[in-house]
Amino acid sequence: MMWRAKKILLLLIMLSSYAYAEPARKLSWESVEGAAGYYIEIKDSDENSVAAETVAGNSYDILRLQPGKYQFRIATVNMLGQRGQSTDWIEFTVEKLFVPELKSVSKRQLVASAVNRNIVIHGKNFKTTSRFILRGEGREIELIDVDIKSEKEAVIAFKPEKSYQGRYDHIVINRGDVESVLKEAIVIVVPEEAESVFYLGGIYCINMPSGDFPEYIATSFIGGGVFFQVEALSLGFDNIMFEAEVDVARYVNTADTKPCSLTYITFGLSIDYLYPVQFAPVEIVLKFLAGPSYTSLVMDENRKEKEQDSIDLFCMLGAGVRYYTGGHFFIEPSFNFKTVFYAGTFFYDARVSLGCGTVF
């Protein structure tokens, strides 16, 4: 009698969903002509016997076994109940089958020929072995750049080709080929057809004067702003954004004998460059901002006639790190250096800021 000895991987399905076909739950072996039955023995990794019985058919249900490593062997049983020679011990592993579930995708639209990053997928039972696939338009596209953050969240980056235009179901597949489908979750378009993506946020900032000004005014902890950004993908530019930003800062003097304050409000337009980091949902943001600045200098805050107002120009260079916390929200610490061309001279300050915002 010849036995086919091999390692067998068996999957026990978790009964959390009935929507997926169940894989085999039995040990099976080749039938032997003339055998009235088979005697099966199973032991666990500690050499403890967990089964030893005669069965009529050429299979044995292992659904009751807990996940772990096991060995089994088989012997034929004749009509008189006599057992033949047993096979060698054959190893197998019982694992749970985790049925995945897709709930949402943060970006419905992907732009062809552009690297679409920070696509946040929410669901359940995501594993390091899970496969993420786009299915539609007569093809399946496997997504390779996937970062499994937890069993409920994954972050994906994907650069589709122009030939991939169309609508796709989003699929996640776990071991045992069980899958979850989010119907028509993704649409791939060329840059000319891309919908605009907007960013809106606020900033709190600490401003530090430089040059000659620290002799007269102190570091300001009163500062903030708002910004509005739009991606330039529709114009064919990847990693470029246009921005409008309004900032306010108020300085007070360092001496107590002659109270004074300097307040400026700037409105700037900028071009921002985003450099995505490959291993995290992070983008490095570089910006150049320029525009008009309204400045109000009050030499004595109790005397109206001491006020001097002017409208000047400013420019600012900055860099920051934008971290996506999940979904549509992000935080952005940054450092900027600003120059206000004020009253025939230059007013310099450095700014440390913390911003936060949302994508819509």
Question: How is the topology of this model organized?
Answer:
Elements: E1 8-13, E2 26-28, E3 37-44, E4 49-55, E5 59-61, E6 68-77, E7 90-97, E8 101-105, E9 109-111, E10 116-124, E11 131-136, E12 139-143, E13 145-150, E14 153-158, E15 166-174, E16 178-189, E17 198-210, E18 222-231, E19 240-252, E20 261-276, E21 282-298, E22 307-326, E23 329-341, E24 347-359
Parallel strand pairs: 1-7, 9-16
Antiparallel strand pairs: 2-5, 3-4, 3-6, 6-7, 8-10, 10-14, 11-12, 11-15, 13-14, 15-16, 17-18, 17-24, 18-19, 19-20, 20-21, 21-22, 22-23, 23-24
- CATH class descriptor name of the largest domain: Mainly Beta
Name the beta content range: over 45%
Most strands sheet: 8 strands, antiparallel, barrel
Q: What name does the CATH topology of the largest domain carry?
A: Porin
Question: What's the number of extended β-strand segments?
Answer: 24
Q: How many helix segments? A: 0
Output mean pLDDT.
85
Integer tally of domains: 3
- What is the CATH architecture annotation of the largest domain? Beta Barrel
Rg result? 33 Å
Residues in helices, as a percent range? under 10%
Could you tell me how far the N terminus lies from the C terminus, measured between alpha carbons in angstroms? 69 Å
One letter per element, helices H and strands E, the order comes to: EEEEEEEEEEEEEEEEEEEEEEEE
Tell the overall outline.
elongated
Structural class label: mainly beta
Flag low-confidence runs.
Answer: 1-8, 12-22
- What strand order characterises the main sheet? 17-18-19-20-21-22-23-24
